[in-house]
Design brief:
This protein is α/β, with parallel strands linked by helices. It folds into two domains: 240 residues, 3-Layer(aba) Sandwich (Rossmann fold), CATH 3.40.50; 149 residues, Rossmann fold, CATH 3.40.50.920. 41% of the residues lie in helices and 17% in strands. A six-stranded mixed sheet has the order 9-11-10-13-14-15, sandwiched between helices. Strand 2, helix 2 and strand 3 form a beta-alpha-beta unit. It is globular and about 65 Å long. The relative contact order is 0.11.
Length: 414
């Protein structure tokens, strides 16, 4: 189903994000540039200054100031949008906890870029996953279309009185931010019906009605009460997201669940991935299906709140599961593998869960690496033994990497 008035255009992920903010008719965009998200705020700046958008755009002096302004504006009942990447997200990090604690809705797009050092412009997910405990909801997109749609859905979830929490929508730098794909732009009137003007049900700041927000509390009891309220609101978001997903599908013909599964129903071996590299996982699944291997893919879409029941149901009864983390928690390994393992721990007969860390800094995952993953899956299903985490790294012939490792007195990884 395509809504009447829908246009189809070739858009980058950044342009899709800007269009979502435009269609949501946001009131306020505080901004600060950082590669690779700058195109989002440049586009919005042009629209504000040309009068296409009627709200207010303000260039701030840092990401810290940007998020301070965003949270404060959201507390007045404004519909707020902003975007950042990588080091910028970390620079404003303390405000993430503050804004979530204020229980104010807004949408922040993070265009993932690996963290220094060394410095790179390409993506992995250590930036956004560093924020997984702050109270922001997190939705991770695979395509440019999903970037746009997820932002519209995020406002509905965020502004629901059962939730009232801010949302991070994650998009991969370069792989989505500067890649053009066909994107359906829904009709503005249809968006207005799906996402009406925001009228806060909670008390918003007004000059005529002073109130306190973020006051200090003494004693763990009061503090615990407010933190538990954030936890309960986050759990409510699982239910609200499913309601919003059905309404979005009815309005625009595209459905997005808490997770996304591909050829999983009869699969014996399942890859678990997230974001744009899941497209590579789909291609690997198809290739192994042609060989007679019953392969499938589970894509993590909503990462906070963590959709434990949906994941458990999708992986129940599988022979083995490979979690491919595009991140690394130094001293531990892949972040989401540990979370998947904890979800499946309650299963009496749980499959071996193998941990792989790959695509750091945007490095490709080769066919040979997927071959190794499936070899390890089949071996684990036969033996019942889970091997230690594996770092996907086959570029030992890269001159710069080789030279660096030799200068550091290290052996080249195999």
């Amino acid at each position: 189903m395509i809504t009447r008035g829908t246009q189809r255009e070739m858009l980058t992920g950044n342009a899709a994000a800007a269009w979502a903010a435009r269609l949501a008719e946001v009131d306020y965009v505080p901004a600060f540039p950082i590669t690779p998200q700058t195109e989002i705020i440049e586009t919005l700046s042009d629209w504000f200054h040309s009068g296409i958008l009627k709200g207010r755009y303000v260039s701030m002096d840092s990401e810290h100031s940007m998020l301070t302004a965003a949270g404060a504006a959201a507390a007045t009942g404004a519909r707020v949008f902003t975007a950042t990447s990588s080091q910028g997200l970390l620079y404003g990090f303390e405000l993430l906890y503050t804004i979530a604690g204020w229980r104010v809705p807004m949408v922040l797009v993070n265009v993932s870029r690996a963290l220094a050092s060394p410095v790179t412009l390409e993506p992995d997910h250590n930036d956004v996953l560093a924020a997984r405990d702050c109270g922001f909801l997190q939705i991770h997109a695979e395509t440019c279309q999903e970037v746009l749609d997820s932002i519209l859905m995020s406002y509905r979830v965020s502004e629901d009185p059962r939730v009232l929490l801010p949302v991070i929508v994650n998009s991969d730098g370069f792989y989505l931010s500067f890649t053009r794909e066909a994107v359906e732009l829904p009709d503005l009137e249809a968006v207005r019906r799906f996402l009406p003007v925001y009228h806060p049900s909670n008390a918003a700041f007004r000059a005529s009605k002073p109130m306190a927000q973020g006051v200090a509390v003494l004693g763990g009891g009061l503090y615990s009460y407010f933190r538990y309220q954030v936890q309960l609101a986050s759990e409510n978001a699982l239910v609200v997201h499913e309601e919003v997903a059905r309404q979005f599908a009815s309005a625009f013909g595209r459905h997005y669940g808490l997770i996304d599964t591909y050829r999983c129903d009869d699969a014996e071996y399942v890859l678990v991935m997230s974001n744009s590299f899941a497209t590579k996982g789909r291609a690997a699944v198809d290739r192994f299906r042609e060989k007679g291997v019953r392969a499938g893919l589970l894509r993590l879409r909503v990462i906070r709140p963590f959709p434990a029941a949906a994941i458990r149901n999708a992986l129940r009864g599988k022979k083995a599961v490979a979690v491919i983390d595009q991140n690394i928690s130094i001293g531990f390994g892949g972040i989401t593998c540990g979370e998947i393992a904890s979800v499946m721990y309650t299963e009496r007969e749980r499959p071996p869960i193998l941990s792989f860390v790959g695509a750091l800094g945007g490095k490709d995952i080769s066919n040979e690496e997927f071959d190794q993953i499936f070899e390890d899956l089949e071996a684990a299903s036969r033996s019942g033994i889970t091997p230690p985490p594996r770092l996907l790294y086959t570029d030992k012939d890269e001159i710069q990497t080789e030279s660096f490792l030799r200068l550091a007195g290290k052996e080249i990884p195999v």
